[in-house]
Design brief:
By secondary structure, the chain is an alpha/beta fold. It has 10 helices and 15 strands. β1 (3-6), α1 (11-23) and β2 (27-31) form a beta-alpha-beta unit. α2 (55-64) crosses α4 (86-107). The model has no long low-confidence stretch (mean pLDDT 95).
Length: 323
Amino acid sequence: MTWMLTGGAGYIGAHIVAAFQRAGVPVVVLDDLSTGIRDNVPDEVPFVQASIADPAVVGAALRGHGVTGVLHLAAKKAVGESVARPLHYWDENVAGMRSLLQTCVDAGVDRVLFSSSAAVYGNPPVDRVTEDTATAPMSPYGETKLAGEWMLRDLAVAAPLRWAALRYFNVAGSGAPELGDRSVANLIPMTFEAITAGRNPQLFGDDYDTRDGSCVRDYIHVVDLAEAHVAAAQRLDAEDTGEIYNVGRGEGVTVKEVFDTVRGVTGQDFVYDVAARRPGDPAAYFADPAKIRSQLGWAARLHLADMVRTAWDSWQSRALGAS
């Protein structure tokens, strides 16, 4: 069985490629390199530079590499940007996925594993969310991820399709120094960027109804997340199924607690500046991962300190390489 990873040259994608290799699952990467990094893909892994919305190139790659399943990661993912550019997100995340799914149908690929998001829950009425918690996205980004799940559900009625969607919570950490998160939209690298530049990190809102006034999130190590994809792909290879899974640690951490962990790992003390709340940011939620644990036998192993430590090692390695 061979899997194609769209967006496989990105931060999360590169870790999933490594996890698939460890599991002995053949993999091909397709990425347009709009945000991905070519060097993230090992030389021995076939690489196709193309947009998911190019059916000719994608179809040829599916057939040429004997692909049996597609792991769809390629997407725009910044909540704030999606509020400012909603049509761009619908075009990239929804129209692009529609094109990809049609190409899969045409090529006879009947397994799709979808990178969804906890953003589909919006501001849930409970802190601990299950897969049955009502979905009410607060941003166009979250809406496009929910629309992707709907497309899979509907297509599975009309055509042979095994599918699963993984609703990620907040991803952090690194599995290797060269594979660190370079996004300026994620909390931990944003904090590193600020303190290494001598600036104060920003706290977006300190008046939420939480234990310390800052947002509560569930942070999951990218290596754990990658292993969850392996487990889901292996189930799709073995069974005809359609399921949605939360992927998180099952515990909430505040932004201020993340800052405290960064202080402890880096040995650098700092203060933060309080900024306005970001549009689309809910106050608090974290995963109930019971379903993925019971059905796929997966559970997170790594803790917040592991995430910050490995991310800091990667950040320092990249800084040394640039000097």
